Amino acid sequence: MNTYSHLANSTVLIVDDVAENLEVLGSKLQAASVNVLAAQSGESALKIATAKRPDLILLDVQMPMMDGYTVKEHLGENPVTADIPVIFLTARTDVADIVHGFELGAADYITKPVQTPELLARVKHHLELRFLRLQQEQRERALEREIGERIMAEEALRKANERLEELNAQKNEFIGIAVHDLKNPLSGIAALAQTVKELPDIERAEIEEYMKKIIASANRMFDLIKSFLNVNAIEQGGLRINLTPANISLVTRMATQSYLLKAQAKSIALHIDTGEDIHGVADESILVQVLDNLVSNALKFSPMQRSIYVRVKECNNCIKIEVQDEGPGLSNDDKKKLFGKFARLSARPTAGESSTGLGLSIVKTMVEAMNGTIWCESELGQGAMFCLELPIVSD
Asked: CB pairs under 8 A, 24+ apart, for 183-186?
């Protein structure tokens, strides 16, 4: 290896107010393949060092206007130049002057008149040290990146494991709920079918009555399965939202009116106050699913001969939909888990209707996908009001 291999292609800034010194030192370094920059004043040296960031600075101590010590202080104060090694060039051999230079952070000093072998040896030595330090810093940065990436990978793995555990728990809960909730309808269907089969003389009216019960049981199972499929689609990113200006009044009114017959069957008065053509931003088909869930829940949990109120109004630069019932209301414990998956609340449907505990979890996800918010206001024994806010159509 060439003795002065670290000199090649390195850049050294020489600072001296005497042009002849710059020429002599520059020629010696250029002969060793060093790229040379030159400055004849401290001010010029600071500008060049900041712009070019040389690998090493040879700095004359005795200069007018700004001496080498002052230049070194300014170099150390600038983050761009603070790490550039400085070798003082000085005719002074006084120990105090040399010590002062080291105290300012100088890497070395060379006494004048400069001898070529000494110049090249000291420059080479400090360029090697700088090269090794930069290599070490690069290794440390690479190690820090590797450690950071490993930490991120471990954190991602931990979250993935937690998610798998959560999904496994949900799967087990799903199986338990499916077994429990599907067992009764399936048993009912089998029993009804067996009854029809065994009756020797059965009237058409009786068959139709049994068929209605079988269809009702089948629908309960279908609703349960549909809820699970909706949850799976949402979690797999299959919920596609198409947000457009929508007549919230009209959508709410039509969705609610479809429950008038079910309300009459329980002697429940369904009051609809949707205002006149109030427009917001929503996905109409998703909003219908949300309203279906909220209104059907209000009917499920309302006793006979009560009222349900569905309202739409503009409020605080948004559209607010309220679905209020006169049912049993919610306890504080119920309100905490209201929008969770498989939430089993203390209140039960009043006419034997089925409930998977998934509906409000799905509703919350759908509402938030439409940039809306949903919450419930309720006191135990005082009914419940579900409030939904959607963005208003901007002008």
From this structure: 185/217, 185/218, 185/220, 185/221, 186/217, 186/221
* CA distances, 309 to each of 73, 186, 256, 274 (Å): 78, 35, 10, 10
Distance of alpha carbon 261 from alpha carbon 234, whole angstroms:
31
Q: Report the C-alpha gap between 270 and 259 in whole angstroms.
A: 8
pLDDT in tens, 52-107: 999 999 999 989 889 999 999 999 999 999 999 999 998 877 788 788 888 888 88
Q: Which fold has domain 244-391?
A: Heat Shock Protein 90 (3.30.565)
Architecture in CATH for domain 162-235 = Orthogonal Bundle (1.10)
pTM: 0.49
Surface-to-core class of residue 388, CB atoms within 10 Å of its CB (0-12 exposed, 13-18 middle, 19+ buried) = buried
Give the separation between CA 12 and CA 125, rounded to whole angstroms.
13
Q: Where are the domains of the chain?
A: 9-114, 162-235, 244-391
Token pair for residue 273? 């106050």
Name, in order, each residue with C-beta under 8 angstroms of 322's C-beta and a sequence gap of 6 or more. 309, 310, 311, 312, 313, 385, 386, 387, 388
Cα–Cα distance between 29 and 23 in angstroms, integer? Answer: 10
CATH topology assigned to domain 9-114: Rossmann fold (3.40.50)
Question: For residues 305 and 274, is the Cβ–Cβ distance under 8 A?
Answer: no
**Cβ contacts of 66 within 8 Å, gap of 6 or more:** 41, 42, 43
Three-state helix/strand/coil letters over 185-235: HHHHHHHHHHHHHHCCCCCHHHHHHHHHHHHHHHHHHHHHHHHHHHHHHHH
